[in-house]
Fold:
Amino acid sequence: MNVLVVCAVAQELAALPARAGVDVVAVGVGPVEAAAGTARALAGKRYRAVVNAGIGGGFRDRCAVGDAVIVDVEHYVELGLEDGSAFALPGGLALARTADADAVLLAAARARLARARVLTGVTSATVTSSDARAAALGARYGAGVESMEGFAVLRAAIDAGVPAIELRGVSNVVGDRATNQWNFRAGAAAAAATTATLLDVLQTDT
Ligand SMILES: O=C(O)c1cccc(C(=O)CC[C@H]2O[C@@H](n3cnc4c(=O)[nH]cnc43)[C@H](O)[C@@H]2O)c1
Structure:
């Protein structure tokens, strides 16, 4: 079975050479596009793993522009009450707002991507553009990296019963845009390099 690599926009993984056994799908920007696109891909074909890869914002003091990040858990920060407190739903329903990376894929990524940082991800349709929101997300979630799709891709894969993991290359510091050190090339290079290495592992060891 093939591996599915999901990115938001194709340019993020332009440096990733095409390879047999791997399908790369660009699903669009934001959690809705990401969940819909990932679910569509998984409904059309059986995959043995999903890798969400792309650029992301790094939280100050947790990582730097150009770093590679493995996400071990994702929080969807816009779902629920603004203050993060419990949200009572009828019938005891719980909000799905946290998604873990698959344990086997996470162990493989940790073992082979020794220089990558293993960090908590936050997913937000709204890009954080103030240092105040960055500080609040960092404190509430212990966030290391922010994206607009991570939770959505993991959630769609988990829902389909397919193991999934997320890799990010840090393209900017989360917070005020005037000082965010935006560097698409550095983030995309890190994302493509780590994805290639993880695919090597998945296609040989498992
Ligand atoms: O122009 C900017 O300052 C800018 C800031 C954040 C994101 C973008 C994009 O072009 C979005 C594309 C893609 O990038 C991911 N991304 C990258 N950095 C962040 C971030 O700080 N917070 C959230 N998402 C980020 C995201 O997953 C998008 O798919 C431009």
About this structure: Residues 184-205 form the longest helix (22 residues).
